[in-house]
Amino acid sequence: MSTTTADDAQRAGGAEAGRYLTFTLNGEAYALDIFHITEIIEYRSLTAVPMAPDFVRGVINLRGRAVPVVDLGIRFGQGATAVARRTSIIIVHSSDAADGQDIGILVDMVNKVVGFGAGDIEPTPSFGTGIQPEFISGMARRENDFLIVLDLDRVLSPDEIAELSRGGRESPDESGTARTP
């Protein structure tokens, strides 16, 4: 008899049973595994960072630390997220960077934490979601529709996290010539 572990599910690229934070972005419902989330804060003004990637809207001061804030709308090619009354920043911790990195994710609105069983999550579709399929770890069933379960490690790749950790400074390319991010 074969059993599937959480590590096996992660290697296969699929979402697994557990608790997820649901949120809305550009009218679509998404979910993130709460394992990565450290806190949720109200939108506050951001400080722009020169030469940062376009999807980095700026940084916030979070208890004395500069935390980059990524606009998922721009990252998904859907345009900038409009700031409104319920706009929130989800603070996630990525351990892919050398010392780990806190990153803010700008969303239209945070909804609630929900639990999904193994049978509630379908494999990633290859079409029709409006975002790159590699950003998705699965589709979670809820009532009459689906939530897109994001793969945070792919939405923010290790290279991009390292770039954010360096603060967007210039770095040499293979030829030794400085390039801008």
Automatic annotation (TrEMBL):
Provide the residue span(s) of the region labelled Disordered.
162-181
- Residue ranges annotated for the CheW-like domain, each copy included: 17-161
Q: Please give the start and end residues of each transmembrane region.
A: none
Where on the tree of life does the source sit, at the highest rank?
Bacteria
- What SMART domains does the annotation carry? CheW
Query: What is this protein called in UniProt?
Result: Chemotaxis protein CheW
